[in-house]
Amino acid sequence: MKGKISPGLAVLIGAVAVFTVLAVLFGFTAVSNEEQASLNVQFDPVTFVAESWDEVQTVITDEAVPLADVLNRITPDANGKATTESLTPVAEELGRITTGNAHVYRVNATGTVTDVDTETSKGTLGMTVDGYEGPIEVRVYVGSRIPSDESSIRDATGFIEFGDFREQTEYGKVAAEINKKVLENLEAVDVESLVGKPVSVTGAFTLRTQNQPSVDVSQVSLVPIEIATP
Which of 38, 89, 194, 215 is most deeply packed, by most CB within 10 A? Predict the structure, then answer.
């Protein structure tokens, strides 16, 4: 005589079958207790950047190319713009193109400070660049704040990628925390005293080319990890 399936077992089998179908249809994935615990841990951008900062500075410094080399490859039109098509080979050779198609450059430069503008918290200094005599203006952030959408240092590292984070908010917090580290580096620099003096600067800048046939290249804004005087 064949065994009979109890009503309770039949319900359990049915529930498993339904769950299996739903998992296939909607992509459910079983998560272990360890994985669930890691998902519940709140992301701490302060700790993340503190642990990464030395590597960030090393990568930017070691991979930097002369800013003059980049600027000499960019030819603005009468309106100060350049086509994304003309800029892409420059980024491929001398910079990096992010997953969002922004062009990011790790650069160093020597030159002379022409002015310091600290009327707002997003202060900058202007500088000439040795080896470049073209029309592109160079500004370097030196204020007590860096624009909230500025992510050049984060994006220039090449090892801090969007896919490593659970959401856009975490990725954005990393950029903000890196910018705080940048400002900490500048605390020892007497910016107001630099006008007319030679300086060397190492940092990064971005040309936002996403979905743009042409972009304004009349000015580049450099986020510095170091400003030094001879």
Answer: 194
